[in-house]
Specification:
Rossmann fold, alpha/beta, single chain, ABC transporter transmembrane region fold, elongated, 607 residues, 4-stranded antiparallel sheet, 2 domains, 6-stranded mixed sheet
Length: 607
């Protein structure tokens, strides 16, 4: 019985095995033609080596039977020895040569996959099925043993088996077609038994994948620098170890069952192989006794029987392996070809202007599988150069509102307009160029300080310093041993520096300022800062946003006073809007929440 995962893989296959093999060949043709040539050469050398090994003993034995001169006997031995040496040496060289090309092709595919991951439409990053496809794609290209590299070995072996099958078939067919048929039948039955046992693991692969995914997660978290303090202060080590031990026990039980099934299949294969060899012995002994078959030919044909069986089983095995690798590569192709929600290729360029107006026109948005709209019938105009604050309780819809304005999501209903034009008609990447942003989930790269600010290795150092100054991080960077060239983080660089949460936020603010987008988005940009540092940022806010439109999202209502207008979001709608003073005077939701927050800052309050 197939597992849910295996059944799903079978049902959802978009490309068949020949199509995937053709795709890999075309890919190799574009990037490393040598791989294709080397595949055929290695296959031919494998067949040649097998034939030399098949004939060497019978030929030498035949010379002995014919009482050939010693020089002729030694000459035959020398000829086959030299032939085998050259064939095996050339094959070893080509296998090393092709390994480099195989790795290059796989890494080239990883590069394409990474490019797709970085540019794929944002709504698809929230789709669990698309993310599963992405994870399967990474697994298919994740190592030297993955299908993205092993497929070339499979194709080489398959071609060698086909070549050996054809040559050995002519050899045995000249002896007796019945013997040939016997070898084919027993080989197919042996393969069927082996296929069932080896296929058991594939049919239950989701069970193994879950355990391996969980074990990798526990290992990653245990080694995490970020969690190092939590692990020690909360004494998490025994808990993590217990979870890991439980995973190992589940894996142990899985591999035990897998081993039992494979042992049963292997046992059946051994019995069939023994039966085939016994029948071949009986038949060849019969020919020897009745027709005077020479011992040298007896040895040749018996070895040919075993060799032919190996070729037959090899063809069937490699076809099965190729099919399984195709299923994994299918995920890569599907992900790379996954249709985009947004326009990245083509689309109209964003018209260049000094200022931009953003407008939500009767916008509603509902996340997939959600029971109700996150935002409903929202109408909003963000005027050019306006500093707009967006506040509200958790889950009110603030982040979704900003995602819609930034073009990360398209409305379920209504339109998002830029200077009166629906943003869906624009090239989405071009639209993104208008925005600079600091998001809550900060993305610090394991690179230098300057590269984190400029997001490039090619940067203007004076401008980087200017942005760091505006973000209030100059003094810290000047203290670092290598200044702007100091590495951030220690996962890649041993000499890396670990910044505090507040320092990282300042670094991200400097990055947003360096990009210089026309629209600045700040999502809780001071959450990790102390009150003094936070006030310093606010004092510079007008300078940072000069000539720009800004969207400021915050939970701290006191931090929104400097904004031109404040939106209070509640239940997916704009419940209130106005300046800080106007909203306090209104005495509504904003005023109530501000009163609650301000109590905790009142001097002398008892807690």
């Amino acid at each position: 019985m197939k597992t849910k995962n295996a059944a799903a893989n079978t049902a959802k296959v978009k490309y068949n095995t020949p199509q995937n093999v053709g795709w890999m060949i075309r890919y190799a043709w574009d990037w490393r033609k040598n791989v294709l040539v080397t595949v055929f050469l290695c296959a031919a050398l494998t067949v040649g080596t097998s034939l030399a090994q098949l004939f060497i003993a019978p030929v030498v034995l035949g010379k002995v039977e014919q009482t050939a001169p010693l020089s002729e006997l030694l000459g035959s031995i020398a000829f086959f020895t030299l032939t085998l040496f050259l064939l095996m040496a050339l094959q070893a060289y080509l296998e090393q040569y092709i390994t480099v090309d195989r790795i290059f092709i796989r890494l080239r595919m990883v590069s394409d996959l990474n490019a797709k991951i970085c540019r794929i439409s944002f709504p698809l990053t929230l789709d669990p099925e698309v993310q599963k496809l992405r994870d399967r794609s990474m697994e298919a290209l994740g190592s030297n043993d993955s299908p993205g590299e092993q497929v070339w070995i499979t194709l080489t072996t398959l071609l060698a088996n086909i070549g050996g099958f054809v040559i050995y078939m002519f050899l045995l067919n000249s002896l007796d077609p019945v013997l040939l048929l016997l070898v084919i039948v027993t080989s197919v039955l042996s393969f069927a038994a082996g296929r069932y046992s080896s296929g058991w693991r594939y049919r239950h692969q989701e069970e193994e994948r879950v355990c391996l995914r969980q074990s990798r997660y526990i290992t990653r978290q245990s080694n995490s620098i970020t969690l190092a303090k939590d692990i020690r202060i909360f004494g998490l080590a025994p808990w993590l170890n217990a979870i890991y031990d439980n995973i190992l026990k589940r894996l142990d039980r899985f591999y035990l069952r897998c081993g039992n099934v494979q042992a049963a299949g292997g046992g059946a294969g051994v019995l069939l192989s023994a039966a085939r060899n016994a029948l071949a012995y009986v038949y060849l002994i019969h020919l020897t006794l009745r027709q005077g078959l020479p011992v040298s030919e007896f040895l040749l044909y018996f070895n040919a029987v075993s060799g032919f069986s190996t070729w037959v089983t090899g063809i069937l095995t490699q076809l099965q392996t190729l099919r399984q690798e195709s299923l994994e590569l299918n995920a890569v192709r599907e992900y790379l070809d996954y249709p985009e929600t947004f326009q990245f290729e083509g689309g109209s360029p964003v018209p260049r202007a000094k200022t931009y107006e953003l407008r939500l026109d009767h916008v509603s948005f509902r996340y997939p599988s959600a029971g109700k709209d996150t935002l409903h019938e929202v109408n909003l105009t963000v005027r050019p150069g306006e500093n707009l604050a967006i506040v509200g309780l958790n889950g009110a819809g603030k982040t979704t509102l900003v995602r819609l304005l930034c073009g990360f999501l398209d409305p379920t209903e209504g339109r998002v307009l830029l200077n009166g034009q629906d943003i869906r008609q624009f090239n989405r990447q071009d639209y993104y160029s208008l925005f600079s942003a600091v998001f809550q989930d900060m993305s610090v790269l394991e690179a230098t300080v300057a590269e984190n600010v400029a997001q490039s290795r090619d940067y203007d150092a004076s401008r980087v310093w200017q942005c760091l100054k505006q973000a209030g991080l100059t003094e810290k960077i000047e203290e670092l041993p290598s200044g702007l060239n100091t590495h951030v983080g220690r996962e890649v660089w041993e000499d890396g520096v670990l910044f505090s949460g507040g320092q990282i936020q300042r670094l991200m603010l400097a990055r947003a300022l360096y990009k210089g987008g026309s629209i600045l988005v700040l999502d809780e940009p001071t959450a990790a800062l102390d009150p003094i540092a936070e006030n310093d940022i606010y004092q510079k806010y007008n300078q940072m946003t000069e000539g720009k439109t800004s969207l400021f999202i915050s939970h701290r209502l006191a931090s929104t006073r400097f904004c031109d207008r404040i939106l209070f979001i509640a239940d997916g709608r704009i419940a209130e809007e106005g300046t800080h003073d106007e909203l306090l005077a209104l005495g509504g939701l904003y005023a109530d929440l501000f009163d609650v927050q301000s109590r905790y800052y009142q001097e002398g309050r008892d807690f």
